[in-house]
Specification:
Helix 2 (52-63) links the parallel strand 2 and strand 3 (69-72). 39% of the residues lie in helices and 17% in strands. It has helices at residues 15-27, 52-63, 84-94, 106-110, 112-115, 119-125, 141-147, 167-176, 186-195; strands at 2-8, 32-37, 69-72, 99-105, 128-133, 155-159. By secondary structure, the chain is of the alpha/beta class.
Length: 205
């Protein structure tokens, strides 16, 4: 069983997330993809985030149409802060014998030694690391290999389409009354509107 791990705050989940996930399934030949909703990410300490219950409802709505996409509660059902190395180790315990591929963007790979908690242990915990590389994105794996031996044998590059959609952008549009309906699945949009998660006025279609 080949399982991909896609972590994030998903505040809210949008079509960019789903397109990247679908590309990972196809290009990396994965059987399943776990969306790990991070309740308390260390790199976002002090930032306001939508309540975990609301983000959970949004993510469930986003994933309902694809049986290969699965919500993981590994970072919800334990206290934070949630470091990725711990997440991967716990998922390995939950899925013994599975081949685990952690998905990350090219910028995260470039900053692995700077921004990540225990990067050497994280790399060791993964079978592979799927790096979503945008057009003209350059990553010097040899530099990282010098610090974390064995890394380059685990890195799998995948071509990621250039998508100018972000959760931050959607939140700003919602707060300012600008349209964002077609940035995310209808079911996600409906929940946002019903609960006025990012806005105080009615939705703009």
């Amino acid at each position: 069983m080949k399982i991909g791990i896609f972590g994030g705050t998903f505040d809210p989940p949008h079509f960019g997330h789903l397109i990247l996930a679908a590309e990972a399934l196809d290009q990396l030949k994965l059987d399943r993809l776990l969306f790990v909703l991070t309740a308390d990410p260390p790199h976002k300490q002090g930032r306001h985030m939508t309540a975990i219950e609301d983000r959970l409802a949004l993510l469930k709505a986003a994933l309902v149409d694809n049986p290969a996409f699965e919500l993981s509660r590994v970072d919800i059902d334990r206290p934070g802060p949630h470091y990725t190395v711990d997440t991967v180790q716990l998922l390995r315990e939950q899925h013994p014998g599975a081949e685990l591929t952690y998905l990350m963007g090219g910028d995260s790979m470039r900053n692995l030694l700077i921004d990540w908690h225990k990067p050497d242990e994280f790399v060791e915990a993964c079978d592979f690391i799927g790096v979503m590389r945008r057009p003209q994105d350059y990553i010097d794996v040899e530099v990282l290999e010098a610090q974390i031996p064995g890394l380059k044998n685990k890195v799998l590059f995948m071509d990621a389409p250039l998508l100018e959609i972000s959760s931050h952008q959607i939140r700003e549009r919602a707060a300012s009354g600008r349209p964002y309906r077609y940035y995310l699945p209808r079911a996600v949009y409906d929940i946002i509107c019903q609960h006025r998660l990012y806005q105080t006025s009615d939705c703009v279609n």
